[in-house]
């Protein structure tokens, strides 16, 4: 539904709590007991933010996913998917002593600039994100001591894990606003 101004009407799919994205029974994020331990807690938050980002992108076509926010910003939901794939790859560079992996999309800002409304670009973005997340998760699983300092910069695993949660949380906030601009859907 669109107003006369061309802006979409705000709406939610939730019926139990109108400020939520989905009703509790339909929410795929883990809302059960808190995990035990620091690493498990960080992974739980990261997993839920990753899922939230995907939920914000669900049901949209390539044009909607690639729609930019407000000029001169290049931010879009598709750009966020590509950006986070790039960031996951870069986090692996933080923990290595070897040669850095090349940028996934080439030059700086190509993650957002290349987020064009084509199904092949959308499919590749999802595949890239899933692959890079799995690779980073696997690399970090080799460091059970959160205080261990690794890589050229000697970053603590804990710091990297917290940074991952922060990065996804910040971009989920962007995704909230982007989705509302696309079709008016609101919710946490």
TrEMBL record:
It comes from the Bacteria. Residues 1-36 are annotated as: Disordered. This is DinB family protein. It comes from Streptomyces actinomycinicus.
